[in-house]
C-alpha cells in the first residue's frame, strides 16, 4: 500500500475519488464558444464535479483551448478523438469517460446558470423517483431570445404513460440537457438516428419522472447544428433522405428502440415491448398532427392580419 501524500491528497498511485457530478461537453469546431460553456460549469455552486471535454477531431483551435483550460483546472479532462466519430459517437465518449454519480451533457455553445446543478440535484433527490431534472431552456439566435415551447413535466406513476405523454408533446427537448443518474444513462444508447435525443429522454421517462424547473435555466445557442433537420442529419452522418422524411425515420427508430434495442425496457416482456412500441408510433403521430395544426393556426392568423384593415386612428 502506498503512503498518502503529505498534504492529505491522494498519492500519484491512488485514483482520485469519484466526483458527485460529471459534465460532458462533446465538441467539434467549438473554439469560439467552448470557454464560455466551461466557465458556466466552473461557476456552479457545487464544486464536487468533473468536466469531460471530447474534441471530435476539430480542425480549428478547439483542442488547444481545451488543453489550456485543463492545465489551469484539474477538474477538466480532455479526450481527443483521432477522427470524426459523428455527433452521437462523441456524446457517448464523454458519458463513457465519466466517473460521477450524476451526469449531464452540455453543448459547447451553451451555458448554465450558477445554481443549475444544485437545483437539479435537489429534484433528483426528492421524495419521488425522478430520473431526469433540467432547468427551463432559453434559445438564443443572434439578438433574439425565446423560452422553450412545451417544457417537459412527466409525473405519472406509470412509466409507459410518462413515455407516451413525452412523445405526444416533445418540441424543443431542452430537458435532454438535464441531470440524471449515470447508472440510468448507461442503460441507454445514443445511436446515430434522427431523433436520438428524443429516444434518450423517452427511456429516462420510462425509468422515472422527468421534471423541468422554472427557477433555473440553461441557455442554448441556435447557431450550432440544431438549426434544421438537414444540419442534424449532417452532424449524425446520415443520408439526406433522413432529413427529407424526419418524422418517418424518428418513428421507425422509436419502434426499434422500445421493441427490442434499449435495455431501459428490459423489465417488460416481448409482447409488452411491442405493444408499447406500437403505442409510441401513435403518440408520435399525434405530435405530428399537433404541430401541423399549430402551423395552420399561425398561417391563418397571418392571413387574417393581412386581410383585416388597421383601425383608423
Question: What's the quick description here?
Answer:
Helices cover 42% and strands 18% of the residues. It is an alpha/beta fold and 313 residues long.
Structural class given helices, strands, pairing? alpha/beta
Q: In sequence order, what are the helices and strands, one letter per element?
A: EHEHEHEEHEEHEHHEHHHH
Question: In whole angstroms, how far apart are the ends?
Answer: 88 Å
The largest pleated sheet is described as: 9 strands, mixed
Number of strands: 9
Query: Helix proportion of residues, in percent?
Result: 40-55%
Could you list the spans in which at least 5 consecutive residues all have pLDDT below 50?
1-9
Count the DSSP helices. 11
Rg, please?
21 Å
Plain-language structure description:
It is built from eleven helices and nine strands. The protein has 313 residues and is α/β, with parallel strands linked by helices. The chain has two domains: 91 residues, Spore Coat Polysaccharide Biosynthesis Protein SpsA, Chain A; 195 residues, no CATH class. Strands 1, 2, 3, 4, 5, 6, 7, 8 and 9 form a nine-stranded mixed β-sheet that branches. Strand 6 and strand 7 form a beta hairpin. Helix 5 packs parallel to helix 11 and helix 10 runs antiparallel to helix 11. The protein is globular.
Amino acid at each position: 500500500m502506498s503512503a498518502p501524500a503529505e498534504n492529505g491528497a491522494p498519492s500519484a498511485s491512488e485514483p482520485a475519488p469519484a466526483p458527485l457530478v460529471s459534465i460532458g461537453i462533446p465538441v467539434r469546431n467549438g473554439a469560439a464558444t467552448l470557454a464560455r460553456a466551461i466557465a458556466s460549469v466552473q461557476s456552479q455552486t457545487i464544486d464536487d464535479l468533473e468536466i469531460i471535454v471530447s474534441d471530435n477531431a476539430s480542425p480549428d483551435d478547439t483542442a488547444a483551448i481545451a488543453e489550456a483550460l485543463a492545465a489551469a483546472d484539474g477538474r477538466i479532462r480532455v479526450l481527443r478523438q483521432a477522427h470524426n466519430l459523428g455527433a452521437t459517437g462523441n456524446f457517448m465518449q464523454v458519458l463513457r469517460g465519466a466517473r460521477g454519480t450524476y451526469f449531464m451533457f452540455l453543448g459547447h455553445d451553451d451555458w448554465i446558470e450558477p445554481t443549475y446543478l444544485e437545483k437539479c440535484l435537489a429534484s433528483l433527490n426528492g421524495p419521488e423517483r425522478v430520473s431526469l431534472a433540467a432547468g427551463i431552456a432559453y434559445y438564443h439566435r443572434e439578438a433574439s431570445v425565446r423560452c422553450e415551447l412545451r417544457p417537459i413535466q412527466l409525473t405519472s406513476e406509470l412509466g409507459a404513460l410518462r413515455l407516451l405523454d413525452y412523445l405526444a408533446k416533445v418540441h424543443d427537448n431542452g430537458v435532454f440537457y438535464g441531470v440524471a443518474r449515470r447508472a440510468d444513462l448507461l442503460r441507454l444508447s445514443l445511436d446515430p438516428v434522427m431523433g436520438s435525443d428524443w429516444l434518450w429522454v423517452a427511456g429516462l421517462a420510462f425509468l422515472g419522472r422527468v421534471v423541468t424547473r422554472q427557477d433555473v435555466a440553461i441557455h442554448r445557442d441556435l447557431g450550432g447544428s440544431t438549426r434544421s433537420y438537414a444540419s442534424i442529419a449532417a452532424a449524425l452522418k446520415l443520408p439526406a433522405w433522413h432529413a427529407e422524411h424526419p418524422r418517418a425515420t424518428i418513428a421507425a427508430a422509436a419502434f426499434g428502440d422500445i421493441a427490442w434495442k434499449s435495455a431501459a425496457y428490459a423489465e417488460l416482456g416481448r409482447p409488452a415491448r411491442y405493444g408499447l412500441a406500437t403505442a409510441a408510433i401513435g403518440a408520435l403521430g399525434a405530435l405530428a398532427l399537433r404541430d401541423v395544426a399549430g402551423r395552420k393556426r399561425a398561417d391563418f392568423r397571418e392571413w387574417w392580419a393581412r386581410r383585416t384593415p388597421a383601425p383608423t386612428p
